[in-house]
Amino acid sequence: MHLVRTEDNIDDTEYVRNVKAIIEGTHQFCRENPELVEDPSLLVNVLYTFSRNLWLQSLQVSLEQPDKMKDIALENEEYQTYYFDYLYNRGMYPR
C-alpha cells in the first residue's frame, strides 16, 4: 500500500482510508480465526504504528538540513502525526 502511495502519489485521505480498511480487515480476520493470533488488538496497534511511521518517514526532511530546518521539521512531524491520526479516526481532512 505504501509503495502505491509513493509511486502513484495518491491523496493522503485516500491513503489513510485504505490503510484503515486493511487494518480493520486484518483485525476482523484475526478475531474470526483466534488460532492465528492470540491478541488481535496488539496486531492492530503494531500495523497502525508501522503504517503511520512509514508515512511520516516519507515526509521527513533530510538530517543534513540546517538546525532551523530541523526545528521546523520537528513541528511539522508533530502536525503530520496529528493529521494522520485525525484522518484515520475521522476519515476527513481536519478543519
Global shape: elongated
Pick out the low-confidence regions: none
Count of discrete domains: 1
Number of helices: 4
What fraction, in percent, of the residue positions are helical? over 70%
Q: Give helix and strand order, one letter per element, not per position.
A: HHHH
* Average of per-residue pLDDT values: 82
Task: Name the structural class.
Answer: mainly alpha
Beta-strand proportion: under 5%
Give the CA-CA distance, first to last residue.
Answer: 26 Å
The count of β-strands is 0
Biggest pleated-sheet summary? none
Computed over alpha carbons, the radius of gyration is 16 Å
List key phrases describing it.
single chain; 95 residues; mainly alpha; 76% helix; elongated
Description:
By secondary structure, this protein is mainly alpha-helical. The protein has one domain. 76% of the residues lie in helices and 0% in strands. The protein is built from four helices and no strands. It has helices spanning 2-8, 12-32, 40-59, 67-90. Helix 2 packs antiparallel against helix 3 (40-59) and helix 3 (40-59) crosses helix 4 (67-90). The model has no long low-confidence stretch (mean pLDDT 82).
